[in-house]
Amino acid sequence: QVQLVESGGRLVQAGGSLRLSCTASGRTFSSYTIGWFRQSPGKEREFVALIRSGGDTYYTDSVKGRFTMSRDNAKNMVYLQMNSLNPDDTAVYYCAAVSRNSYYTLAARYDYWGQGTQVTVSS
Predict the structure, then answer these.
(1) Which of 15, 42, 62, 68 has the fewest other C-beta atoms within 10 Å?
(2) How many CB atoms lie within 10 A of CB 33?
(3) Per-residue DSSP letters for 7-75?
């Protein structure tokens, strides 16, 4: 079992930066692939980024060059550094975990989810 708790979301102006954190429980956290997803009203939950157990990362095209995902296995933490934010980035951001070392971008592939943290980017 893995429990995930996101934090760091808030209101920010366009062009600004935020760092989201995801704190995980579980002794085998380091072996999990962790994904960040986001969902805005009326839209489906969409993939943002993932990090595999070895630190490999993968991003959706709309955030490449702006978002950076990292992990600290000693602290059971995952981070999403978001720069050059724009109003289209407004959403509830979720972190999710799956016990396989994978490049899964489908939400249904992930077994554990946090409660989400709201990011609002004002124009």
Answers:
(1) 42
(2) 21
(3) E---EEETT--EEEEEEE-STTGGGSEEEEEEE-TTS--EEEEEE-TTS-EEE-GGGTTTEEEEEETTT
pLDDT in tens, the chain (123 residues): 889 999 999 999 999 999 999 999 977 888 999 999 999 999 999 999 999 999 999 999 999 999 999 999 999 999 999 999 999 999 999 999 999 899 999 999 999 999 999 999 999
CA distances from 103 to 74, 80, 89, 98 (A): 22, 17, 22, 10
Residue 71 is encoded by which pair of tokens?
Answer: 């992990």
Q: How far is CA 51 from the centre of its chain?
A: 9
Contact criterion met (CB below 8 Å) for 78 and 95:
yes
Q: Which residue type, as a one-letter code, is found at position 83?
A: N
Q: List, in order, residues 6 or more apart from 5 with CB less than 8 Å away.
A: 22, 23, 24, 114, 115
| Whole-number Å distance between alpha carbons of 118 and 38 | 9
